[in-house]
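hey all, quick one before standup. I had two proteins in the batch that finished overnight and I want to keep them in one place so we stop losing track of which output belongs to which input. First protein below, input sequence then structure tokens straight from the run.
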Amino acid sequence: MDYTFDFASVVAAWPQFLEGAWLTIQLSFPATVIGFVMGTLCAIGRRSAVRWLSKLCGAYVEVVRNTPLLVQVFLVFFGLSSLGWKVPAFTAALVALVINVAAYSCEIMRAGMDAIHKGQLEAAECLGLTRRQVYWHVILRPAMEKVYPALTSQFVLLMLATSITSQISVEELTATAARVQSETFRPFEAYILVAVAYLALSLLMRAGLWLFGLAVFTRRRRLGTGVAR
């Protein structure tokens, strides 16, 4: 192998990579928050006694989980355009990511809710808690704590999946790498650099989610201990 690495021209394009990383974050953060909320509501719908609602939520989850994200991005971007709704590529990408992560969050949260022991629900009813209080204090919060590691992994995967949106000209990290390598004729170095950037973003995201979980769930346990005393 006769190849000489030259990162100078690629590293010189660091402002472009920085802009791409910022756009990746702008896609990931709102998609994570909105997708989690939608997924939680969908999980409640799947466990609902209302048959049509449960089937509707189940159909949504199955369709999304059994089709490629790239196809979903194309359907939103080109589909909305075909219907006469001209939306920016960024907006279409965000909508597709939310739809995708919500379906996966739904199944993760549903698994956590199903893991709550029936005895806890009966105890809550005996204490006279309303249905809303039971869902919040006995089902949702404990369920989220049980499945939080799985949610964290899913959200990191979502951030990595934003690379797919480069296919509709969203200028995130992968699209930036493609542009830089076409300008510098250094594809190997450009994609090595972007791989390192994704690795750094993944580690930072995991650390941030870990700190968030530590703060939220540690506080909840302390409050629970205080009530028990």
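OK second protein, same deal, sequence then tokens:
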Amino acid sequence: MDFDATFLARIQFAFTVSFHIIFPSFTIGLAAFIATLLVRWRMTGHDHLHRLARFWTKIFAVSFAMGVVSGIVLSYEFGTNWSRFSVVAGNVTGPLLGYEVLTAFFLEASFLGIMLFGWNRVSPNLHVTAAVLVAIGTSISAFWILAANSWMQTPAGHEVRDGIAYPVSWLEIIFNPSFPYRFSHMFTAAYLTTSLVVAAVGARYLLAGRFVEESKTMLRMGIGMVAVLAPLQLVIGDAHGLNTAKHQPVKVAAMEAHWDGSKPADLVLFAWPNEAEERNDYEISIPNIASLIITHDVNGLFKGLKDFAPQDRPPVKPVFFAFRVMVGIGMLMIAAGLIGAFLWWRGLLFNARWYLWPLSLAWPAGFIAILAGWWVTETGRQPWLVYGILRTKDAASPVSAEAVLTTLVAFVIVYSIVFSMGIYYINRLIEKGPTGASVKPSEGVPSRPLSAAEEAAHEAIDKKG
């Protein structure tokens, strides 16, 4: 394999975007969870909801900061490593990313300070409102980012003049053919990821006999969301797959390791795709089921990899295996959600240690599924950077392989340190748990901020109580 500048730039962008995406996908769902807790607290006055909101806000702050820091690098990489992409597609993607800053990031930045530091300093109504607006801001941010990415997958609403894309219809650009499916799929994945983390933390505390009331709330809310969203994600994923089969058939062929489009496709459970000989080794499959899934006809036909020139095919193995990781985790989520809902209904959930123990270890599952799905989406688009308009090899900047390799090594080192410290600190927060004083929703702003000694006294009283 030739490790030229373009290949190294692809590795660098894949590394940085994979690191970055796990934080926004978590904070999107976590912001909504915190806002829901505060709204419920405002309506009921239950202290434990306020403590939970404050606890998860600390974790949100760390995750949000890591997401911002890791995301800034991506914008620079467009200019340093992919300048030709900026020239060809910048007229479309530039404004979309600009809209994200204007409508989402400014909204989040305006109210994030109140959400993080307004405890006991602003009125409860203002604090709850700030949390709701931050949650809305994270959702709007996802809207614009996915609009830009979806346009790169299924370009629409533009015209190409002298090799450069120019906007013609912004509505068609934003709501391009894959956007509704991609947005709903990713948005649901973010909520699933957060719900599983919340449920896992609740299970961890309950197994240890700590924060029992808070644990039960986290389990109810987390498992309730997983039980609803995991089966829904299966339906959304099926619709997204059908849309991909229509607009990016070679990606679907790689996902299924389907070579011969003249025959109905088997559902390949496991295989080792052999790209040199255009077949699958060690294949374990169920006849005709892939045709049933993709065409809704057991004898239906869809294009295979042989229907495309080798230079127009994506790397098959990464797409094939990542897709199975994503689907496999999705099936486990469905099972976990439905079993948890059944135990909850029967009143057995909080004592079912056989269920709570694996659940307490399941917090990484959503992140792994998101990364696998992202790799399917981005690797499956190859060799195109903007599908049908700009190939990846034609988008790179004229920089040396040594320069890209140097920055890649630096990013790996720095990101590893940042990630390790962030996870360490988040784990410290989880170890400490949802302690601390809360305020009644009927109380106004304290006459002055609480001192450190008063905060410590409140925490001591809370622990005894």
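Flagging for whoever picks this up: Residues 442-454 have pLDDT under 50 and may be disordered. The beta strands are 158-161, 164-167, 267-274, 279-286, 384-386, 390-391.
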